Structures are given as C-alpha cells and as structure tokens.
What does this fold into?
Amino acid sequence: MEQAKNKLSLKKRSFSAMLWSGAEAFAKQGLQFGISVVLARLLGPEEYGTIALLYIFVELAWVFGDSGFSSSLVQRQDLTIVDESTVFWIHVFFGLLLTGTLCFAAPWVAEFYEKPILLPLMQIMASAFFISSLGSIHHVLLTKGLDFKRPMKVSMTAGLFSGCIAIGMALQGYGVWSLAAQTVSSSILTTTLFWMLSGWRPRFVFSLASAKRLFGYGGYLMLADLLTVSYNRIYTLYIGKVYSVADLGIYSRADNTKQIPLDVMSKMYARVAFPVFSQAASDKEKLLRGMQYALRGVMLITMPIMAGLLVSAQEVVLTLFGEKWLSVVPILEILCLAGVFWPLQLLNTNILKALGFSRLLFTTEILKKLLGIGFIVFAMPYGIFGIAWSQVAYGMMGFLINAYFSGRQLGYGIFRQIADIVPVLLVSAIMATAVYHLGQYFVLDPILMLIAKMLLGISVFLITGFLFRLRILLDIPIFFKKQPSTIS
It folds into this structure.
C-alpha cells in the first residue's frame, strides 16, 4: 500500500511540474516559432546561413559560461547561500571573459569564412553572454525548486518583445542584423525580468572550497557539453566553408524545424526529470519508476510528432516558410528519423547526472562523439544529405550507449527501454502510414492538406493507442482525479 502511495506521489509531483514546464515550453517555443515563420518569409537562406556560422562559437561560449556549476546546484540537496553566491560570481566572471574573448576572435572568424560582416555581428552578439550571466542563477534555482510559473512569464515577455524588434528590423531591410538584435534584446529582457520576479539576490562572498566542491561534479558535465556542442555544430564549419552559406541556411532551417517540438519535449521532461531524479537518487526503486514513466511519456509525444512531421514535411514547409524554402523538405524528412532518439539520450543522460556519475557521463560522451565524427567523415562526400543521414546513425548509436551505461546503474537498460518504446512505435507507424496515403490519394491546397493530415493523424493515433491499450495513455486520467488520501 505504501509503495502504491509513493508511486502515485512521484507521478503526481512529476506530472504537476511537467505541466508548468510544458506550459512554459509550449508558450516560449510557440512564440519563437511564430516569429521565426514571419522572419523566414522576410529573410532567406543566405541570411540564416550567415548567422548559423556563428552558432558553434555562441554555443561553446554558453558551455564555458555555465561551467557545469548550474547542474551542480540542481543535483546537490545541501546548498547554502554561499554556494549559490559563489556560482553567481563565477558565472559573471566567465560572462565577461567570454564576451572579451569572442570580440577578440571575431576578425579571425570573419577571415576564415571570408565574410567581413561576421566581424561586427560576432562582437555585438558576444555581449549577450555577460548580460545573460547576471540572471542565470535565478533561473537555475527556480528550476531546482520545480517553479516554472515565473520562467514562463519571463520567456513569454522576452520572446515577444525581442521577436517584435527582429520583425520590425527585418521589415526595414536590416537583414541578418535583425536576427542578431533578437538574440541580444532577448538576453537583456530575460535577465531584467528574472531580477524583478525572483527574490534571490547574491551576497558579496566567494568560497574557493565551495567552488572546488561544485566543480568536482560539474567539471565533467562542462567537458561533456563541450563535446556535444562541438559535434552538433561541426557540420556548420564544413558546410559553410566547403559548400555555400545558402546550403547551410537550408540545413539549419531543417534542423531548427525538427528541433522545435524536441525542445518542447526536453523542457517538459528532461528539465523536470533532472531535479526530480536528483531528489529520488537515494531510492533506486523510486528512481526506476520515475525513469520508466518519463520515458513512456516523452515517447508518447515525440514519436507521433516526428512521424507526422516526416510524412507532412512538404506541407509544413510550404505553409510556414514558402516555396523558396522547398529544398528543406528532404533534409527535414531525414532529420525527423534522428529526432526520435534525442529525448531518449536526454533522459538516460539525466539518470547518470542525478546519480552523480558525471565522470562516467563524460566518458560516454567521448565514446559517442568519436563514433559520431566517424559518421560525419564518412558522410561528408555526400553533401548535406549525407550529413543528415550521419545524424540518424549517431542518434541511434547514442541512445544505445546511454541506455547501456544508465542501465548498469539503474537496472533499466537497452532491452527494457526498447520494450517500453515498441508499443508507441507501432502505433506511430500505423498513424504515419494512414497520413502518408492520405497525401497520395487526395490533392489539396498545402494548408488544407496539412490540417487534414493533422486531424487524421491525431484521430488514428488516439484510437489505435486505446485499442492497443498503451499504458501511458491509460495513466493520464489518474492525474485529473482527486485522491487526497493517497497523495503525500
């Protein structure tokens, strides 16, 4: 009886946090997506390709700015104000350091790509690192406390205003500068709002012992993140240098479109999973139940979305971005296959992080990236299509590696995870088949066809899911029933 209470308590708590995190994710991603659709119609592959050349430097700088300390704050359950203030000042120091470093390196980046505009672009965007460092700890502490209401307000407000600035500048003909302005203005508004809405304030203290203790765990996470960003953006160096900026813009548009629903899922589940898993790390049985529930839940949403996007890619691109982006369609279809494995890797990674195995996590990232680089090298002669297929191979291999190592620590390995995934995979395959044949037998306007495919896909998935008695679907009504006697 007590086990049943604890099981329901864990689900209720995780589900409540997931709802607020999901509300923030949907609101933020929905707003950003709407703005990106408008900007994509005002700008072209050339402008997006130009800004994409800087992504690797921007993301590497974010990793250094975080230094793994944010994850340490979430993972540890015995924090003091000295710990929190120490991390704040470290973030501020790295923010200043990285802003200066990127401004200094900008001339070499512009020369490497033979695009002079990258010099001022990189220097302007570099200011976002210092600005964001001033509000990063506020966000981390809210996440640790599973408070996603205030981050949702911050995300919506900052996203709306920065998006309006970008659209206004694009309409005035500022081109790629509108995208840079969006990044910088979003950082300014986000940091300002976190200080206004959060009651936390840093103290003028710094503890070297606290920094060493937190970095002992977070240092390996920083190295793992560096490997991940380097691998994820290495194609930009190759495509942007060997092919064309327009090709990079096409690939980036496909990747970003695929990533939008995945980012929502990662914020709904992975961001909630880490603090929840960390609090349950001392109880392996409870942690196992939480991981099973999270995996079933995330794949219930991710699998049909990726399958539906794959068979509706042409309608999505034509409806949202217009005919000038039609070259995105085949790349997007391939990347949807890779997208299925992304949340699986995140959840398994969060298990190792929650259990404190940051060094093991770093080791797995080395192994994955060595294999991934091999995939990319093999695929490079085949252009952007080959690189897209290399991401599918990497996604599959990455899941198998993460699931193997997390399975050794938790007893929930590759085969048990696959067994939990297979029912959703079968239902999604049936849904995708029905949606695909709809497009083969009927000819409609792209917008009408997209609506028809969405309605058919949702109907087929829900009906088939209940017929197959998908466990996670049957669990959903439990969370909307009042059971005060069993909730602790």
Observations:
- The radius of gyration is 22 Å.
- The chain has a mean pLDDT of 79.
- The chain is about 85% helix and 0% strand.
